[in-house]
Amino acid sequence: MRKFLLGVLAIVTLSTLAGGKYHWDQRVEAVQFNGQKEEVVSVQGDGEEEKKEKAEKERKRLLQLDKVNYLPPELKETFKKKIEKNESVHLMIIGSSSTSGDNGAWPKELEKALLDTYGQDLIKVTCKEIAEKTSQQVVKEGIHKPLAEMKPDILLLEPFLLYDNGEIRMPERLKNLETILSDFKKQNPDITFIIQPANPISGAYYYPQEEADLEKFSRERKYVYLNHWDAWPDHRSTELKDYLTDENIPNEKGNKVWLDYLMKYFVRK
Question: Mean pLDDT throughout 207-235?
Answer without folding.
Answer: 97
